[in-house]
Amino acid sequence: MFRLILAALAFNAVLALPALSVEIGDDGLHKQDWFSITFRDIAEDIEEAAAEGKRLAIVYEQRGCIYCRKLHEELLADPEVRDFIKAHFKVVQYNMFGDEEVTDLDGEVLTEKTAARKWGYVFTPTIVFLPEELPEGKSVAEAAVATMPGAFGKWVFLHMFEWVAQKGYENGEHFQKYHARRLAELRAAGRQDVE
C-alpha cells in the first residue's frame, strides 16, 4: 500500500510540472522567438549585430536532430544561459539541408546546404561565432573566431559564449583553460550545480 501511495504522489508531481514546449517551424527546426530573422547576408548580419552591441552567432540545425532538441529544451531553456546569449549575441538559425539563400562574407551566394558544405559543417547543432568587424575576402569558415560542433552540457556551452564575448581567442587563454578556471571560480563561489 505504501508503494502505491508513493507511486501516486510521484505521478501527481510529474503532472504538476510545467510542460516544456518549444515551437517547431514548418522547416522542422525548433524555434526561439528571440532568434533573429535576417536576409542571411553575413556581412550585413555582422554589422547589424555590432550596431546592437552584440556578436553574430550562426546556429546550424536539422529536422529531427535530437541534439538540437537538447539545445532548445535544455540549454536555451535555462534562464542563465538564455539571458547571457540574448544580451551578447545576435543568433541566426540555418538549416543544414535548407535552400534559403545565403551570402558568404566573400560575396559568394549559396544555399544554406551548400554553405554548410563549403564551410565544412557536418554536425548539428553547430554554432559559428563571427568576428566583431568584417574581414576582407574571407569565407565564414575562415573568418570564424570559434566553432562549437554539438550540444554540450550547460557549463561548456555557456562558457564558450562567455569566452567569445570576452575575446578569449585573442588573449591567449585557450578555451579549455578558460572553462576549467570558470568552473573553479563557480565552485569557490558555492555553486552547487557545477558539474
Automatic annotation (TrEMBL):
Keywords of this entry: Signal
**Entry superkingdom:** Bacteria
Q: Which residues form the signal peptide?
A: 1-21
Q: Which InterPro entries match?
A: SoxW, Thioredoxin-like_fold, Thioredoxin-like_sf
Ranges of residues in domain Thioredoxin-like fold: 49-133
Pfam families noted in UniProt: Thioredoxin_2
Protein name, UniProt field:
Thioredoxin family protein
Q: Which organism is it from?
A: Chelativorans petroleitrophicus
